[in-house]
Write a structure and sequence with these properties.
InterPro entries: Memb_transporter_dom, MFS_trans_sf. This protein has about 750 residues and is mainly alpha-helical. The chain contains 27 helices and two strands.
Length: about 750
């Protein structure tokens, strides 16, 4: 019973850790709530009134969430600089309280400066945000010159409590965060493999659900891998170690993805169409027949999938044992063709995938935890270790790459453009807000400000404004209910405020509408604490929010606009260029060329694709009236995601060639790589409007090209055989991308299709 409870608890925690990789959202919520609670306790002991406690709680919240720097020293410096900035903002808010016009002009200038300061990195962004928010708080609590001394004390207490919680109670260091992300990656890897196991025996009528789970867990694993990538340099001892961990994480992710594809191929007698399986509403692969092979092979496959799960579950330091080594050795043995069981080619492919997955798990463990006990190694395991040693020696510690200089100046610089846009929008919001309410006009300005945060095009601003309005309306309904529930119970109201704040930070990365809901519900409680609550106030909140969102959109449209189409075209061009770089470099290495950092290039492709995925949200959002464009955007991104998967797999296979004793390069692959690169270059030129000449080449399959390029059939186990499917799918995917972009495609006869 105790063991069952422990297993249930472990499984529950693993699921939670997988849903919040690295526990980043949980830690952010706990850190903010902890700082607020400590601030309230100190202010209560000092005997301050409720308005000052509200101000202290808000300042504590701002001083906690505004700082995003990764290094502890940088966080401390920014927090120390933030206090004088906050004192200055509060002082100016109190001094300009009675000077309406002067105060409004200063507020607009402050907003401009806060946005413009983003060009100075995380510290500039944090200080600008603190200055703006504290000035806003001074308006919220009606700060005056007479109340400045006690407000100064409140600010000092808030910043001190924020520092104490950040550096002592809930510390945030890159090393701790990276450690939690490692556990999240392990949990997500185990979840993905457990879902892949279901493909063997799932009934046809339940296959849709399993495929949906497979897509979701694959996406979550990819998300965790990208988050690890962002913290490697700060969370590891040096650049070489960071590069090594990055390589091993990427290998594990790719090996897990490939294993799922191979299982899906084996599951379907008709072989799964891996080009279209990721598309929205894609048809389910044919499942008329079960895996046609010997029962012994299937039983062995089930056993070894469980064994791989065991290896993943034991990827923590201190795990030893002959049984574990035996499992590892058996799985790594499948990398040799002689050790494959008698089965159909599709099932043998799965066993090869098991061997590569086991190798990636071994590599990940070596990179994260250092040397392991080698006393029970088999020849296959020894060879895998030697391959890793050769790869490690080949990693050249290059000078830290500098960010390419941004040659845009003046009004073309994104921060400058955004500063002017938000200044104009805020001016309109201020004027319109005064007509709605001379006391609450700043809510419109706040909405105008926040819709510009983390947005880069007019379409993104429109979608963010819409989501904020929806969240605000729902939050007003919740605020009415909570205000009635609280009544005169001050500490109950504070407790619910803390709950709303935690919900706000925990849901912020997931849904902006949910975050806005918690913010508005919290405001209803704050007004209750300040004895200024009424239904009219919350209705006014909706009106001011709608006005602020509209003014933000007007500012984005009229002042130096960045159209969504132009931005998405630029990002699409970037993704295609990086796809070409990965494919060309991988094929060159597969053809016998020099070794390069292919997995680093693949990670750059993933980051560009993530940025494109975020930028097309205005085109794919349900409120968009352009249904055809929405379908086209989804189709293109789905094709790019599938192409990126095959490019990563090419890169992972190419990485093995220089160090493997069993895989040799094949010069015939160079021709296939040239065709794919040529087609991508044509599409990029058309997307960026650089050229309209040329046609995308299609026709003969990659396999046919390779057969005509050299003698000899494609043998199972050769590098050509292993990458053939990836090259073919990339070739088909690039042609598929060309068609909706109206790029001419030449058919087999050389004529445009």
């Amino acid at each position: 019973m105790v063991a069952a409870i422990r297993r249930a608890g472990t499984n529950t925690w693993d699921r939670f850790a997988a849903s919040d990789p690295g526990l980043l959202r949980l830690m952010a919520g706990l850190r903010t709530v902890g700082a607020i609670v400590l601030t309230l306790l100190v202010l209560a002991l000092l005997g301050t009134g409720t308005p000052l406690m509200v101000a202290g709680a808000m300042v504590s919240m701002v001083s906690t969430f505004a700082i995003k720097e990764k290094e502890v020293r940088g966080q401390a410096v920014t927090l120390a600089l933030g206090l004088p900035v906050a004192l200055a903002a509060m002082s100016l808010g109190a001094l300009l309280h009675a000077l309406v016009v002067t105060g409004d002009v200063f507020f607009v200038l402050l907003i401009f400066g806060a946005v413009y300061s983003r060009r100075f990195g995380d510290r500039g962004t944090a200080l600008g945000l603190i200055g703006f928010q504290v000035y806003f708080i001074s308006l919220f609590v009606h700060a005056s010159v007479a109340t400045l001394p006690v407000l100064y004390l409140t600010l000092a207490v808030a910043f001190g409590c924020s520092a104490l919680v950040r550096f002592a109670v809930v510390p945030q260091t890159p090393q701790r965060t990276l450690g939690r992300l490692r556990e999240a990656f392990r949990a997500r890897l185990a979840q993905l493999l457990a879902t892949q196991q279901e493909l063997l025996d799932v009934e046809p009528d339940e296959l849709d659900k399993v495929l949906d789970d497979l897509r979701r867990h694959t996406a979550r694993l990819h998300e965790a891998a990208l988050m690890i990538q962002g913290l490697l340099e700060e969370g590891t001892r040096d650049e070489a170690a960071a590069g090594l961990v990055q390589r091993r994480v990427a290998e594990a992710e790719i090996a897990a993805e490939r294993l799922g594809m191979l299982l899906l191929n084996a599951r379907s007698a008709g072989r799964a169409d891996t080009l279209t399986m990721h598309l929205p509403h894609a048809p389910v692969p044919a499942t008329g027949t079960r895996i046609r092979t010997e029962d012994d092979a299937i039983r062995t496959l089930r056993r070894d999938l469980n064994a791989l799960l065991l290896l993943i579950a034991r990827t923590v330091p201190g795990e030893r044992g002959t049984a574990l080594a035996h499992v590892r050795n058996r799985l790594l043995g499948y990398r040799d063709e002689d050790n494959l069981p008698q089965a159909s080619p599709a099932v043998q492919d799965v066993f090869r995938g098991l061997g590569e997955a086991a190798r990636s798990v071994l590599g990940l463990r070596l990179a994260l935890d250092g040397p392991q006990d080698e006393s029970d190694d088999s020849p296959a395991t020894t060879r895998s270790r030697e391959e890793f040693d050769a790869e490690d020696l080949a990693i050249v510690v290059a000078e830290e790459a500098e960010e390419p200089a941004d040659d845009r100046t003046g009004l073309q610089r994104p921060t400058t453009r955004a500063a002017f846009q938000v200044a104009v929008g805020s001016t309109l919001a201020m004027i319109g807000g005064e007509f709605l309410s001379s006391q609450r006009w700043y809510w419109a300005v706040l909405t105008c400000w926040v819709v510009f945060l983390n947005t880069a095009s007019t379409g993104e601003i429109m979608v963010k404004g819409y989501r904020r309005l929806v969240g605000t309306v729902l939050g007003v309904i919740a605020g009415v209910a909570l205000a009635g529930l609280v009544g005169d119970h001050t500490w109950l109201a504070f407790a619910l405020v803390l709950l709303c704040i935690f919900g706000m930070f925990f849901t912020a990365p997931l849904s902006y509408a949910l975050m806005s809901f918690f913010v508005t519900a919290m405001l209803g409680l704050l007004y209750t604490l300040l004895n200024t609550y009424s239904l009219d106030v919350l209705v006014l909140r909706i009106e001011e929010t709608a006005l602020g969102a509209a003014c933000g959109i007007i500012g984005a449209v009229l002042v130096l606009p960045v159209h969504t189409d132009r931005r998405t075209d630029e990002l699409l061009g970037t993704v295609l260029v990086r796809l070409r770089d990965v494919v060309s470099a991988a094929v060159e290495q597969l053809s016998g060329g020099p070794a390069v950092d292919l997995l680093g290039k693949a990670r750059d492709l993933d980051e560009a694709l993530d940025e494109l995925r975020a930028s097309i949200q205005p085109l794919t959002h349900p409120i968009t009236p352009l249904r055809v464009r929405r379908r086209t955007a989804r189709y293109l991104v789905a094709l790019l995601e599938t192409s990126a998967y095959h490019a990563r797999s090419l890169a992972a296979t190419a990485e093995l060639v220089p160090f493997s004793r069993t895989i040799a390069a094949d010069p015939r692959l160079e021709r296939a790589g040239r065709r794919i690169a040529y087609n991508i270059d044509l599409i990029v030129a058309r997307v960026l409007e650089e050229s309209t000449e040329g046609e995308v080449q299609s026709g003969a399959s990659i396999a046919a090209m390779l057969e005509t390029a050299g003698s000899g059939a494609l043998q199972s186990g050769t590098v050509t055989f292993r990458v053939l499917r990836h090259l073919q799918r990339l070739d088909e995917g690039v042609v598929g991308i060309a068609r909706p972009l109206d790029v001419p495609v030449a058919g087999p006869g050389g004529k445009a299709a």
